[in-house]
Amino acid sequence: MAPMLSPRQAEELHKSIIAYLAANNLPNAANALRTEINLGEESFDAATAKKYETLLEKKWTSIIMDLESRNESLQSELDSATPSSLSKRNDPASWLPKAPPRHILESHRDTINCVAFHPIFSSIASGSDDYTIKIWDWELGELEKTIKGHTRAVLDVDYGGPRGGYLLASCSSDLTIKLWDPADDYKNIRTLPGHDHSVSAVRFIPSGAAGAPSSGTLLVSASRDRSLRIWDVTTGYCMRTINGHSGWVRDVCPSPDGRFLVSTGDDMSVRLWDISVSEPEAKQIMFGHEHFNECCAIAPAASYKYLAPLAGLKKPPPASSTAEFMATGSRDKTIRLWDARGTCLLTLVGHDNWVRSVLFHPSGKYLISASDDKTLRCWDLSQDGKCVKVLADVHERFITCLRWAPGIVKDSGPIDTENGEVGTPKRNGAERAPPDVQIRCIIATGGVDQKLRIFAN
């Protein structure tokens, strides 16, 4: 049989075995092996024996612990599985990310802070502390372009805008928001100044908000200057400034119909804003986290049937009613689920470090979170938020961002909403039939290790 170890590896193993035998009062066996492999005093003295005597046990323990951890994770998945869920393992509505990633993309020279998928094409943008935005092809795993323009760290990116005329928005510690045209080789078409401190989050607002100048042309930004701003991307004008937070606003998320915003940050509050009125107002202000809040997400209508029982509702709210439930992640290591009345429905405990990003599965059944503990966790909303899957060591260092590719509306183009929202709200009092949406089972994560990872079915 051909040896599996190199000569050096074999020598290390032999020394470890001999040192282990000697340390455990088995001198005859140790001497027999030394004689067999002709290992003399000149290459294995007392100091060498001391160096190697615990190595075998440490290696054995680490391997066993790793296997036990993996076994526990797999057993947890099996315990949570039902016959119907096992039969739907390839069903996009039941898909959850699993290791290994399809691609590990490297080119950034510093921490990746944000990622965003193009609504139609296989492009993904990432922004970094290295001041650049990079455009990748997530299918091929190739770098397509590096965009330079910001003079400080890029903190967030988002695709959106009028259907057929999608733009890429980015925001930075340089106090600006920039708009880039993917159809024109990502040319910088507009820079939006106005914030007085770092701009931490930027999101396109879906069409539907009252007073919107045109479909899909509004953008919302959150800043360390404690404000939210709403912009018209066609003119570059700041339409509204929303004040209320008393600390750094870390994240903002618009509702699928563009009527509401959820924001959160260092004042540890979660605020639900109605932006369909001329003077945006906070409908609810929620407190509960015990440290700075890092992220927020609005639940899709598909989640209502799982979240309604937690809120004590006999039947789910209508799909046309948006911003009924929200999720927030915090540096207190927890995730909280809220309803529009300001009630905390659940606190999800499991992460061992800051929770940096949360998103709802397009099917509505799961919540997925990313943390500085280097894990992704999948929480089953149909089982009272039970953690049913943990992907450990997703990155070599802290995970900073997490995004799900938006679904594709068949025969109608993309559905361009946050978190892959698949429902269609009611507008102007008329109920629209839900579109036939193809869920794209693709998740991207970025981290302090400067790597972008793509998980795909």
From TrEMBL:
Domain PAC1-like LisH-like dimerisation residues, every copy: 7-42
Keyword Transport (UniProt): yes
A family per Pfam: LisH_PAC1
Signal sequence range: none
Name this protein carries in UniProt: Nuclear distribution protein PAC1
Predominant location: cytoplasm
Sequence segments annotated as region (Disordered): 74-100, 413-432
Highest taxon listed in the record's lineage: Eukaryota
UniProt repeat feature WD, residue ranges: 105-146, 147-181, 192-241, 242-283, 320-339, 348-382
UniProt biased composition (Polar residues): 74-87
Keywords: Cell cycle, Cell division, Coiled coil, Cytoplasm, Cytoskeleton, Microtubule, Mitosis, Repeat, Transport, WD repeat
Similarity comment text for this entry: Belongs to the WD repeat MDV1/CAF4 family. Belongs to the WD repeat LIS1/nudF family.
PANTHER family, per database record: WD REPEAT DOMAIN 5B, WD40 REPEAT PROTEIN
Gene that this sequence comes from: LIS1_1
Function of the molecule: Involved in mitochondrial fission. Acts as an adapter protein required to form mitochondrial fission complexes. Formation of these complexes is required to promote constriction and fission of the mitochondrial compartment at a late step in mitochondrial division. Positively regulates the activity of the minus-end directed microtubule motor protein dynein. May enhance dynein-mediated microtubule sliding by targeting dynein to the microtubule plus end. Required for nuclear migration during vegetative growth as well as development. Required for retrograde early endosome (EE) transport from the hyphal tip. Required for localization of dynein to the mitotic spindle poles. Recruits additional proteins to the dynein complex at SPBs.
Compartments where located: Cytoplasm, Cytoskeleton; Cytoplasm, Cytoskeleton, Spindle pole
InterPro entries: Dynein_regulator_LIS1, LIS1_N, PAC1-like_LisH-like_dom, WD40/YVTN_repeat-like_dom_sf, WD40_PAC1, WD40_repeat_CS, WD40_repeat_dom_sf, WD40_rpt
Subunit organization: Self-associates. Interacts with NDL1 and dynein.
